[in-house]
Amino acid sequence: MKGHRLNTDINRSILKLALPAILTNVATPLMSMVDTAVVGHLGDTVYLAAIAVGGSIFNMLYWVLNFLRTGTSGLTAQARGRGDTSAVATLLLQAMFIALAASVLLLTLQTLVCRGMILFLSPEPETAVCADIYFSAAIWGAPAVLGTYALSGWFIGNQDTRPILLMAVISNLVNIALNLTMVYVLGMGVTGVGFATAVSQWIGLVIGLIYMVGLNRRLSLKYYPRDIFKPHARIGRFFKLNFDIFLRTLCLVAVTLWFTRSGAVLGDTTLAANAVLMQLFMLFSFFMDGFAYAGEALSGLYYGAGNKRLLYSTIKALLTWGVILSIVGSALYFIFGEAIFTILTDRADVIATALDYRLWIVAVPLCGFMAFIWDGVFIGLTLTRYMLLSMAIATAIYFGVYFIATPTMGNHGLWLAFTAYLATRGLAQHLIYRYTAI
User: How many domains does the chain have?
Assistant: First the structure.
């Protein structure tokens, strides 16, 4: 009975954190999906291709800086487990300071970054022009995105994912309204899509800051900005962990950018079809990240408190949830894939091309669920060096399979490389944890 009660309590704790995060992460890709759907009905494939290119650039930038969330959540959860409220407050200050510095740098270098990435991705000339226009408008939301990352990691570490849901829902509702107004009423095209995205991101940050004030009062936290760089603040460890995550993210970005570039070389129709398929992958990944967030919060909390029994039981429960969700996700994509494609675009050639590769997106949940669950656990335990190692191995597998398979398989070879990369990430992390981590 005690074991059954323990499992029930663990699953309840997981779901309490995961369900708001799942709703958040289902809402999060809606911003990108709304952008895709709006331009997908403008009557020209070039608009859809431009959003795919512009979206890939922002994915690269924000993924590289995602350590503001992941690096903050594990350390904050461990501090909560130890009962160290001073560290909890200082970690938020550190994360927000880095977010501000990164925002200034990003806005200063925006033209160089945009032109350089478009040159690398090599889209067709008309697509490149539209992507530049979209980027120039949407980049002004970058400070809000980075601030939201810092707040989100801090909220997760404090065992509360509800404010993340609130930020996502409100910002997405604003994005939908502004997209429809700026594109269909004001006729602003891709510029309107970019500005709608930026404004909605700022609204999300404001909501998060309001919630932060209330949480501070409940926890009776006191902030001393001068403590950010003092020895007891352990900013050295903060930067070390974040640097590991930064390098890991560079590998992830390399895979994603090469994926987009490979599709672009095959023409706008294949690029657009891959963009539609990747929306389904993003939807699944953000869904799985709901349980990864629970892994971050609970693993860090139990590790900080020194309770290995709860830690091991939580990991087992998380992996069980991962198996269930991956089977459900694959089944839904197999049955309803075509219907989803028609929602995202009305271009018959893009839909037909996406259908040719549908089985790959069906395989993604089964191949990728372990990677997401273990990411959450490793972040909670601050095992960032092992995360970097597993990602490096998976990246090597990706490029190896790509260069072997694509000469004869074309875009099918690209998707084979991507699914192999996902499976390798999860398997490598599983083996690393089992034999070396704790």
Answer: 1
The Cα 193–Cα 182 span in angstroms is 7
- Given phi > 0 = left and psi -120 to 50 = alpha, else beta, which region is 306? left
Interval 373-384: pLDDT, tens: 999 999 999 898
Contacts of 230 (CB under 8 A, 6+ apart): none
**What CA–CA distances, in Å, run from 8 to 12, 17, 99, 291, 306?**
6, 14, 38, 16, 21
Distance CA 350, CA 276 (A): 8
d(CA 199, CA 370): 35
Enter the tokens of residue 120. 């690398």
pLDDT in tens, 100-113: 999 999 999 988 88
pLDDT, tens only, 325-361? 999 999 999 988 888 888 877 788 888 888 888 899 9
Give the domain extent around 381: 2-437
